[in-house]
Amino acid sequence: MAIICDQLISTELVPLWIRSSFYGSTSMLTYIMLILFMPWISRFSYFLVIRASFAWKIISGTTMFLIGQNQPWCLMVFLLLESCFAIGAYNLFNMPLSDVAENNMQRYNRKHPISSMVFGTNALIIKPAISLSPMLVVSVLNHYGYDRIKKDNSSTGLSASELDNLKRIMFLLICFYSVTIGLIQLILWSFYTIRDRKKMAVIYVDGQEC
């Protein structure tokens, strides 16, 4: 995030202290958002909340693309909410993983759930993706001259047209990355079939509490 913000958001338009607060507030706002959304999760089930976060990626990425890269405050709000929704949805994924292990135990009459295998397989896929995605983004940006900026610690290594092209690529990356990932996640999430049982269980618990 810092790589893109340093290039797309000018320090003349956004003061440095606001930028620093913006970088540091992401994780805190994520947990505040989770606390605020907890009643919705209990009422509508985590399936709908996670699906809504995927739909948000598509809508927000498309909206930001239509707004354009010349609106730094809108871009900061977009990046902040995008990060909060992504981290928040990631933190909720322990719930469907637990349901997958429990459903497997019931379906195959196991004595114990295969939680270690489910969570281990998830980590085997997720952890490399988290590590490799920044490297992939930087490799794409290096193709457009970002390595020269990083080497010289300034934008003087690029011409005005090259710098504008680099900023345009950065903006397109954050918009279409959000839309593409959100679309893939939304399609794959539609195949999750345990949602009906989980939703009924949540409604039943709420009914008992009432």
TrEMBL record:
Alphabetic keyword roster: Membrane, Transmembrane, Transmembrane helix
Name recorded for this polypeptide: Uncharacterized protein
Transmembrane found in the keyword field: yes
Pfam families in alphabetical order: MFS_2
Domain of life (superkingdom): Eukaryota
Membrane-spanning ranges: 22-41, 48-67, 73-93, 114-137, 169-192
Keyword Transmembrane helix: yes
